[in-house]
Amino acid sequence: MRRLLIFIKKEFKHIIRDPRVLLILFGMPVVQVLIFGFALTNEIKNSKIIVLDYAKDDLSKKLINKIEASKYFEIVSFVHSKRIILDYFRQGKIKAAVIIPEKIASDIIHDGNAKIQIITDATDVNFANSIKNFIRAIINDYQYELFSKESSKINIITEMKMLYNPQLKGAPNFVPGVMSMVMLLVCVMMTAIAIVREKEMGTMEVILTSPVSPIFVIISKVVPYFVISTIDLALILLLSVYVLDLPIQGSLFLLLAESLLFIITCLNIGILISIRTSSQQVAMLMSLVGMMMPTVFLSGFMFPIENMPYALQLLSNLVPSKWFYIIVKDIMLKGTGLEIVWKETLIIASMMLFFLIISLKTFKVRLN
Questions:
Q1: Which residue ranges in the chain fall short of pLDDT 50?
Q2: Model pTM?
Q3: What are phi and psi of 105, to 5 degrees?
Q4: Closest residue by Cα to residue 236 from 171, 326, 142
Q5: Among 72, 144, 173, 194, which is most exposed with the fewest C-beta within 10 angstroms?
Q6: CA 174, CA 180: separation in Å to the nearest integer?
């Protein structure tokens, strides 16, 4: 029994001495509970909308005040034409628009019926439906207040318009997210074990003593996975168009260029992880924890970022998949061009250069 206790004590010491193991055992449960408890929710919270009020009377103002007073929506602007509404949607500035007709008051007084149009961005079907239901609930509540004051029955009808996905298919939201996930899996996780495998096998010493520049060693590790990622990209696009019936609304050339930029960025991240780790297990763990989890939780693919706490919204800006997900949705579904996605493109390009420079500098140090 004493020998057993000695071995148990020894194992506890090994665990305590390894900060990476402690991070997995205690850090990850805490992070996951906080993320799942506070951040990952499909509830509507401060979603940005705009209002087109043709009536501009007391009735419409009271309805607008009721929408604005709720914690669910933030009215970012009052516009004057439907054309401006489409510009807001294309630029990704809003999630919905409410259009109040000019004669809403007279329609209610004379007919007891009125119509209000709600337009939502249906690239994310579940979120669009949630927004629709919340706005409808506010309008129904307002309708009940009017009915209690009037002797006749009042019926406010909400007309729905789903932009970019009128058939409410799941593919428009699913495909951009899968593209981000697959590119990340192939590029980061597979590349992360490329150099560290050489270290474990003992062949890295041979490479280090050869008259080969560090940049050529990195390129030799990157090229195979770049080719594989490009093939995966082509397969995803072909399946999306011909199997899932999801046509590419924007420029195919721009979409391919943006995808290749994202692939190169992920490859650089994988190489950096590979250089800075000493075993394949650690490299895989860093890839999963450092990239896979943020892609799933903080890219906007599964959960709306605007619903998350402000700290996590800031943290999501460091996730390359977030910006790529926005770019793919804008090009494939909204048909936008570089004039809309230039900011996201610049951010991914900056990340690519940052990780490339860090990888080269770190690899040069190991050669000395």
A1: 365-368
A2: 0.79
A3: -70, -45
A4: 171
A5: 144
A6: 10
